[in-house]
Backbone:
């Protein structure tokens, strides 16, 4: 009788252990266990550089992009802060060296009409305009980059000049030139998107952009132009 009770007790304990094992299997294992996930090592970073392109807006005055602004030789912020604004300049065409056969060289003059000192450096943008509305006629002036381009400091009332070569339209056939009488010149000071108008009908323009009539040197102080 005593052995029978002990056997029953052992069977009961064994049954409880078996039930616990089955419950553990049904729940996916030990409920207190924590799964550790190792993140993959980061791949080496790839650095890339991008260059931003800048572009100048085309003026609304009818001038082409090539005549839209003059060329500034400095490009520094300090130079830009003291640069003569178009609103403080007056442009005119003055006698030059006379030029050679088939062309004439005049001086494009920019005078400081403001009350403070300012600077100019580089090549003005120049083109013939007409039609009574500032429409560009033909090709804009080529800029002679080989010419000296010093920084010109202008006190109030002082003037800088740029030699401007004008080829006679008669050097081209009418078919190649399509001659027109302009109202004058559109002038962009170096680094400026604003233009000045010089009224002048003394020269013939060519409507064809293939007939290049104008070329301009950099600005220099008045009295120092070599041509």
Residues:
């Amino acid at each position: 009788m005593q052995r029978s009770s002990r056997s029953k007790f052992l069977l009961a304990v064994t049954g409880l252990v078996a039930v616990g094992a089955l419950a553990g299997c049904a729940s996916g294992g030990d409920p207190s266990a924590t799964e550790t996930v190792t993140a993959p090592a980061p791949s080496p970073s790839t650095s890339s550089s991008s260059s931003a392109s800048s572009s100048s807006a085309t003026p609304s005055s009818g001038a082409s992009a090539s005549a839209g602004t003059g060329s500034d030789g400095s490009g520094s912020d300090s130079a830009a802060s003291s640069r003569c604004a178009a609103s403080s300049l007056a442009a005119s065409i003055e006698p030059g060296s006379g030029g050679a056969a088939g062309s004439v060289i005049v001086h494009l003059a920019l005078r400081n009409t403001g009350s403070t000192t300012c600077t100019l450096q580089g090549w003005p943008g120049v083109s013939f305009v007409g039609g009574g509305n500032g429409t560009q006629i033909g090709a804009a002036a080529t800029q002679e980059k080989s010419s000296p381009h010093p920084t010109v400091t202008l006190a109030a009332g002082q003037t800088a000049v740029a030699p401007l070569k004008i080829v006679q339209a008669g050097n081209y056939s009418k078919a190649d030139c399509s001659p027109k009488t302009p109202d004058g010149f559109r002038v962009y000071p170096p680094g400026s998107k604003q233009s000045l108008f010089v009224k002048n009908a003394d020269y013939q323009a060519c409507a064809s952009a293939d007939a290049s009539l104008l070329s301009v040197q950099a600005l220099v102080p008045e009295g120092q132009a070599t041509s």
Q: What stands out?
A: The radius of gyration is 41 Å.
